[in-house]
Amino acid sequence: MMSEKPEIVQLGAEVLRLKARPVDDFQCAKFRALLEVLQDRMFESGGVGIAAPQLGASWQIIIVASRPTERYPDAPEMAPVVVVNPQFQIMDNRLIKDWEGCLSVPGIRALVPRYRSIHVDYQDLNGQPRQTVLEDFPARVFQHEYDHLQGLVYLDRVENNRDIVAESEFFKRIAA
User: Fold this and answer.
1) Is the dihedral of CA 145, 147, 153, 159 positive or negative?
2) Of 103, 59, 111, whose CA–CA distance to 82 is shortest?
C-alpha cells in the first residue's frame, strides 16, 4: 500500500530496474490514488515528467508535462498528459543529444540521445485509446519516462561518460 506522500525512489532502488506491468483495472482505487500523487510529486519536485516506478509502483503510467523550468528554460508549455500502457513508433530516425536529469538521480545532468519525433499510442486515465505525435522536448520527456517503464534510467543511454556532469556544472554551461 502506498503511503500518503511517497518519496521519489532513488537510483539503486530495485523498482527502477523492473519492467513495469500494464494497467488493466482503470477503476482500481490504488490506480486512482497513484494518479493524484504522481502529478503532485512531479510538480512539487519541479519535474517535467514522472513515471509510476519513481514512486515505487511498477505500473505502466507516466505523466508528460513540458513547461519552462529553471533546468529547462526553453521548454514549451503543454498541459500535463497522463499516459497509460504506452507504445511508440519512431517518426524521425535522427537522434538529438540534449541535457536531461531525473528526479530519481538528483544532482547530475547528462547529454542523452533521443529521437526527435515519435508517434505514441496509449490509454488515457479512463482506459480510452489515444494517440499523439510528440516532437522535440516533449518527445524527449516521453522517451525518458518510457525508459522508466522498461527498467532503464537516462544514464543507461549516455554515449560517453564525459557527457555526465554535476548539476552545478550544468547550470554554469546553460548560463554561458
Assistant:
1) negative
2) 59
Angstrom distance (rounded) from CA 107 to CA 169: 10
In the residue annotation, 145 being an active-site residue is answered as: yes
Q: What pLDDT, in 10s, does the model give residues 52-79?
A: 999 999 999 999 999 998 888 899 999 9
DSSP structural state of residue 21: B
Q: Is 119 annotated as a binding residue?
A: no
Are 112 and 157 in contact, with CB atoms under 8 Å apart?
A: yes
Dmax over CA atoms of the chain, in Å, equals 49
Instruction: Judge if pTM exceeds 0.90.
Output: yes
Cβ neighbour number for residue 35 with a 10 Å cutoff = 17
| Single-letter amino acid, residue 139 | A
> Which of 58, 47, 67 is CA-nearest to residue 20?
58
102 is in an annotated binding site: yes
Q: Which of 77, 135, 145, 159 is catalytic?
A: 145
> Does the annotation list 148 as a binding residue?
yes
Tallying the residues shown for the chain, one arrives at 176
CATH numbers and ranges of domains, the chain: 14-175 (3.90.45.10)
